[in-house]
Structures are given as C-alpha cells and as structure tokens.
Amino acid sequence: MSEPAHLYLVLAMRTPHFQAEAGEAHKAFLAALTEQGVLDATGPFTDGSGGAYLLRAADLATATELAHRDPLHTTGSSTLTVHEWRVRRFAAKE
Question: What ranges do the domains of the chain cover?
Fold first, then answer.
C-alpha cells in the first residue's frame, strides 16, 4: 500500500527576470500535473506578483523536487517556496 498524499502549497513569486515564455511553459507543466492527478488547485494573484498551486505528494522532499521542475523555477522567472499545508475545508452553508 502506498503512503497517503499530503498537501503542499507552492508559492511562485515573480522575479525581475520573469519571462513570458516561462509563463506559457508553466501552464503546460500544470496541465501535466493535472493529468498525473497531483495538482489540487492553482491560480494567479490578482496583483500580478505571482501565484500559487496546491500539490499532492508523499512528503516535502518529493513536493519540492516536483515544484523545482516548474519552468518558472528553472528559468529564474519566479522564486518558488514549498510548504506542507494542513488544509481545513468547510462546506458552504445554504
């Protein structure tokens, strides 16, 4: 039996060296993560400073290794930090 996946919040903050092409490659990277079933949520910050995504992984090292494959990271377009996150979700009241 495999270990249960934990959630990891990846913060991607743009650097002065941000490249638009890296942003396009980042979208393809996220699509691949979706296909692999490891991407839980993603989205940009409304102020244009970067964005975040939520990964499922066995441990912090695995999540960090995966995030560091992101073209935003490999091109120096963004600084990525990875944090284990104990998410609490609440159902909307109707």
Answer: 6-84
Please identify, in words, the CATH class of the domain defined by 6-84. alpha beta
Question: Dihedral through CA 20, CA 36, CA 52, CA 84, nearest 10?
Answer: -140
Residue 1 has pLDDT above 50, yes or no: no
| Alpha-carbon torsion, ordered 33, 82, 45, 27, to 10 deg | -20
Bridge partners of residue 78, in order along the sequence: 14
Q: What is the pLDDT of residues 35-79, one digit of tens each?
A: 999 999 999 999 999 999 999 999 999 999 999 999 999 999 999
Question: CA-to-CA distance for 6 and 47, rounded, in angstroms?
Answer: 29
CB 7 within 8 A of CB 38: no
pTM: 0.88
In this structure, which amino acid lies at residue 35? E
